[in-house]
Structure formats: structure tokens, C-alpha cells
Please model this.
Amino acid sequence: MQCRRSLSNQVPPGEQFAVWGWRAMFFSGLLTSVIGLILFRNLEESPIFKALQERKAARRQQAQAAGSPLKSLFSGEHLPVFLVNLLLTIGAGSGYYLTSGYLPTFLTLVNTLPNDISSLILIAAALAAALGAPLLGELSQHIGRKKVLVAMGLVRIIAFPLLFLAMAETDSVALLTIYAVTLAFIANGSYGPLLIFLNERFPTALRASGTGLSWNIGFALGGMMPTVVSVISASPHQLPLMLAIFSTALSVVFLIGALVVPETRGNLRRLG
Model:
């Protein structure tokens, strides 16, 4: 028993551990690191990892050979595609901002509704907008992107001016709700297929840049339209007519874009 106690005091060496015993533990750790380094330098990578690295290197070489995605996007081959896309995204973005985006101002300045009533109408319109985009996007999966875009462009040209002018002429909360819900559904439904359409318009190497720029530039320009309408309108009484004119004109732009683009459903471009 005394022998065991004596051995335990020596390994590690009791109070001497704080003086020098820790060095033995430290250097033993270094020894395992050296062994690990030797093993690491002499082991071969797995075939799967090597193949993955080779594919990555090949993609990098292809990207370098092709040049910058932005340079390719604005080249002679892809620039016309990008510009036509802008017709659709500007029309879609302006349609959203002049309807769902402008409804709070319209209900307050034109219809002079109290906040509690206008809030309920806006909630109903937001729900309609949330349904419009996925429903029309799903429809485009069955009948094609182009057909849905053309149809929605035609609907917008007829419905937008009629709805804006009708909203200005009614005092009925029920009718205002129906008009606002219809506006929001049509505007948001018209760009339901647009994002997948833009993705299908570009080859893999340009897809992120082409889709991102087409969408964001179009919606940025479309987002300026409410300001233009407000500046041109001399009084709230002119807002319905200005909204009718601008929404119709920009819907024509949207329709032109829808008419000239090809059908892309099932034609995702994977190469390039």
C-alpha cells in the first residue's frame, strides 16, 4: 500500500509537475503531431475527392476562358436577350408599384378612408397578391410561360385603367375592396412566371448575373413610376387618371416583351 502511494507521488511527480512535469506532457503532444504530419504527407487522396477537384479546376478554366459573366452578358449574343427581358421586368415592376405599392396612398388621398378601413382593404389586397404570383406561376408550368405572360399583359391593359377609374368613383367599401383585391391579384399574378422565365433565358455560366440584373434593374425602374405619377399629378383628383394612363402604357411595354420572347418552358439552357 505504501509502495502504491509512493509511485503515485512520482508519476506525475507531485508538486514537481508544475515545475517540469508538464514539459513531458507537452513534448509528447508534439510527438503525435509529428507522426500525424508524416502520415498526412504520405497518404493519397481518395479517387472521389481527386475527381471532384479536377472538375472544379476544369470549371475554373472554362470560366477564365469565357471571361467575366458581365462582359459576356453585354456581348452581342446575350445583350438582345437582356434588353428584351427588361421590357418584361420594367412592366412587371411598375405594375406592382403602381397597384399594391400605391394602394395605401390612393385609399388615403383619393378615397379619404380612415386608417382602420384602409388597413383591412390592404390586408385583403396583400392576400390576393400572395395568391396571384404562385397561381399564375403554376399555370405557366402547364400551358407555357409565354401564353401566361401575353394573357396577363392583355388583361392588365383592359383592367388597370378601368379599376383605377372605378375606385375613384365609388364610396362603397365593399366595391373598393373588390377593386383593390383584383388590382393586386392581376399585378402580382402577371409576374408569377417571370423569375423562372428569366432563369430559363440564360445559360448556366450567365444565369445568376443575367437573372439578377434583369430582375433588379427592371423593378428599380418600375419602382420610380409612383414618384413620377405623384409629381405629374397636380392634385389628388388627378391621381386616378394618371395611374390609369401610366399603368396602361407600361402594360403595353410588358405585352410587347411577352410577344417577342420565345417559349422557355422545358428549354432550360444548361451549357455555356
Observations:
- The first helix runs from residue 2 to 10.
- The domain at 77-260 is CATH 1.20.1250.20 (Growth Hormone; Chain: A;).
